[in-house]
Amino acid sequence: MSESDITLKSGRADWLGGELPYAIPSKKLGMWLFIVSDSITFGAVLVCYAYLRLASPNWPTPFRLSSIVNGAIMTFVLLSSSVTMVAAVEAAKHGRIAASVRWLSATMLGGVVFDILHIREWLGLIHEGLRLYQNPWGSSLFGAAFFTLTGLHMTHVTVGVIYLAIVAIGFRRGKFTADDVEISGLYWHFVDLVWMFIFPLVYLLSARIR
Amino acid sequence: MSATTTHAGSPAGMSWFLKVWVILLALTALEVFLAYEELPLHVMLILLMGISMIKAAMIIAYFMHLRYERTNLSWTLIPAMVFVLVMMSFFFPDSIRVERLGQFLH
Question: Are residues B76 and B97 in the same domain?
Fold first, then answer.
């Protein structure tokens, strides 16, 4: 079967029934299935956070303007790293390996900057007295919920940086293909996507207005 | 059989992705602006979640390229995920009950 047979086109001519129902590499389908299950994991933690907030009459709103600005910068960094990731995939698809590796490095840099900003934010809150089971502002459940949710996300960013480094090295050495770069991109964009929910639900809804 | 099929049918080049990026940044700015408007919590929640879902949909459709994959991939992935997330939300009335219960205990 040639490549053109399974190329995406509108219409029914390309339909191959049960043989190639998705017309994507199996690794890519694997990544998509992982992303669906991982989004359910994040969904569970977010639902847990929202549940605790609703059930606690004194949920704290500890995020000062500096935290919100910091979070907005983190959002900017992560969204921009998604664009560099797209650029890496485009370069890889066109066989420009060096350019692709450069864009991947830029994406990793974005991830590292995100992590640094996030850890700085954490340290600031810890300095103000936020702990897993207590804080000076209100419900003692806030710390556990906050650190679990943002910690899980930060772990994903860190793992993503390591994953992209492995893919970049393998791609430069010819061990990995452009498809592998694209699949690592799926993971990276997913991490970006999750932050699009954490930032408003955790930070913006708990901004200290006065 | 070659496995490289996925870039067929994608829009032309980086300029499109940059447009998506600008829209996502603008929506983020709108969210930050809304955070400092003193709206009722449920209105704020609906607005922020609505904007976030638009942003997520754009990331999935363009950056993650799902719009240019076969439709049956989307049909396999998205409804199952949405269904599970909706099922989890059935717990929420219970959390409000816990708060109301607190009032009677005092």
Answer: yes
The total of other beta-carbon atoms located within 10 Å of residue B101's CB is 10
Q: Which residue of B has its CA nearest to A16?
A: B70
Q: Report how many domains make up chain A.
A: 1
Give per-residue pLDDT as tens, A165-196: 999 999 999 999 999 999 999 999 999 999 99
Q: How many residues does chain A have?
A: 210
Greatest CA separation for chain A: 66
pLDDT band at A2 (very low <50, low <70, confident <90, very high): very low
Residues B62, B79: one domain?
no
Same-domain status, B89 and B74: yes
Structural domains counted in chain B: 2
Q: Which of residues 57 through 86 in chain B touch A, CB cutoff 8 A? A: 59-60, 63-65, 68-70, 72-73, 76-77, 80-81, 84-85
Flag whether B62 is in a domain.
yes
Helix (H, G, I), strand (E, B) or coil at A63: strand
pTM of the model: 0.89
Which residue in A72, A79, A179 is closest to B32 by CB distance? A72
CA dist., res. A210 & res. A54, Å (int) = 21
Average pLDDT for A93-117: 97
Confirm if B27 and B51 have CB atoms less than 8 A apart: yes
pLDDT tens track for B17-72? 999 999 999 999 999 999 999 899 889 999 999 999 999 999 999 999 999 888 98
Dihedral angle, C-alpha A99, A188, A163, A35, nearest 10 °: -140
**Residue range of the domain that includes A190:** 33-49+58-206
Look at residue A118 and tell me if it is in a domain.
yes
Domain of B92 in residue numbering reads as 70-106
Best B15, B20, B21, B32 residue to mutate vs chain A (most A CBs within 10 Å): B32
Answer yes or no: do A205 and B41 touch at CB < 8 A.
yes
